[in-house]
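Researcher: I'm preparing a figure for a lab meeting and need a structural model of a single chain. I don't have an experimental structure, so a prediction will have to do for now. The sequence is pasted below. Please return the structure as tokens so I can convert it later.
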Amino acid sequence: MRNHICRPAQKNILSGLACLFVLAVSARAQDESLAPGINEAFKRQPSLSIRQFDFMNRDLSQQKEILDACELKTGMDVADIGAGSGVHVRLFAEKVLPAGKVYAVDIVQEFLDHIEATCKEKVIRNVLCVLGSAASCNLKPASVDLVFSSDTYHHFEYPIKMLASIRKALRPNGRFILIDFKDKSSHVRADSKTVIGEITKSGFQLIDSRDFSNMFFLARFAVLP
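Model: Understood. Here is the structure written out token by token.
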């Protein structure tokens, strides 16, 4: 009877093949949309979405809580990923004056057009609109001090790639502030624990996390060196 015990060289080969398999699976997962079609409604009815965003974000106490969590300072450059109707963009723009800028990032051009129009109407001059993609925020490397994203993470079709682009856009000691649903559902692919795990595995360190209203959580992250 032949001896089937693996010798050291065989073990190394098997270990290497296992690692390659895991990497291949991981790479394939990153190339597949985890939420296909989730953003199509926004593109079909942008005007309706804008009205809904304005309605959902009208709570002044929540706006104050967001500002407190972001700890914005004069001169900071900030990005709102998934800027929607621009409620938070306009909120941030005032806080970083006179030298700070706010980048409004979204994948729907009509949302950005609306933000540009409202900023012009309100004479807000430190907002720059950026058309993102499904896999990237399309910001320049080391261009912002803080990235904010509200009710958007579960709309990331390629979250790992998007997180990599966010990390690349942040400067040293930069922070990432996230608000999203606490629980998984037919619309939300992952709960808060899974989301925080994905983000920390992508080069971020969790600072703190807490409930934000009944359905949402707010988490703050720092960029790992």
